[in-house]
Amino acid sequence: MPEAAQGTPFGPRVHAVAAYLKTFQALSDERLQGAFADLFGLRLSQGGLMNMLRRAQGAFAAARDKAVAALRRATVVASDETGVRVEASNAYHWVFRCSEAVVHRAAPTRGAIVVRTLMGGHRPAVWCSDRYAAQQGHAAAHQTCLAHLARDVASADEASADVLPSRLRLWLHRAFALASDVATFAASTLARKRRALERSLDDILAAPTSCDLARDIQRKFRRARDQLLTFTRWPGRVEATNNACERALRPAVIQRKVTNGYRAMWAAEGEADIRTVVDTARLGPGTNAFKTILQTVSA
Description:
Strand content: 5-15%
Number of domains: 2
Radius of gyration: 23 Å
Order of helices and strands: HHHHEEEHEEHHHHHHH
Number of strands: 5
Low-confidence stretches: none
Strand order of the largest sheet: 3-2-1-4-5
Largest sheet: 5 strands, mixed
Shape: elongated
Helix content: 40-55%
Mean pLDDT: 94
């Protein structure tokens, strides 16, 4: 085959449009073919479209590695994951956040091996996540997402006649109020408020109850007892919730519901790389998804 015939007739902008529509507008392969045909008069086979996407995704490897390197230097890291379908099997889309980077990772497992492999031996000072065991034990300290606990408490409060869930709901309200202004308090004031919350929680967890729902929610708080107020020891640097990771995962959840998953692992990994580069760029000002994709593909 002549050397000139081994390349591609499509330029970086066409590659960027394909990557953007597939990754951030959740178009299926068939709908993406239709969009190119209707908008640009460009008729592509699915094989040609897959080759275009694979070429585009390969351009994001270098920037992805820089984001991973920033994550492995971070003092505070947060993580979350959600299920996806890859090659007609259950798999997972993970996200990891720090102040300098957002890293997405497609993996066939929900196990802690994903965290250990990505972090490469680095152990940050604080980790933030929900209570899932695979996301525990990766840092010197841990902040359990209070929003997850608040949802459990709200459900128990609606279904239980016991007063204990209501007391926990009020306690969480005080904790969220402290978290919203945590960076404005003097160290002594913050320590005093933390001690008051700890004493109040001790009283609630020691309260007797005959309600199974109340006992269950008590057990959840006891297991996470040392991880509830870590944010007060790192004011302005550790969040009380893991909502930022959940927001970063939302596009992947939409993609799963619209397209029902990926035909191949390379497609899931490639889209994770694109999301890594775009979401990391969004931590700074003056950028958008397509602009970042085009700049990366054109480099």
